[in-house]
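Let us practice reading a record.
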Amino acid sequence: MIDTIEQFGRNAGIVWDALHTYGPLTEEQLIDVTGLRRYELHIAIGWLAREDKILFDGERYHLDSTNLTWDIGHEAGKVWLALATRDELDLSSLTQLTKLDKNKICEALGWLAREDKIQVKQRFPKGI
């Protein structure tokens, strides 16, 4: 079985490669070009934001110093706090506790995974 955190990093590399090859892309274009599911893309965005490699201009993502540190870093703090107060949480529970939508939680998980601060015990379901 593939290590989930390792896969998060690979997916971040896929997104980086797409932006390097095609230039700035929208979320939908990134999904089309990379073949990633929406939640995988958002995890990769969080990972790349933590690495200071992705910028969002309100419409498209670019390879550049990130402007997402405040947003995703703040979201990661909320998710980290929720995880620190419970043994295990699923995505639905994180949504309820943090009041963040699933995409924001996925970005936060990507950020925290890049910091090696989380463990994922099972794969995400296809429907998120």
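A brief commentary: The chain has a mean pLDDT of 91.
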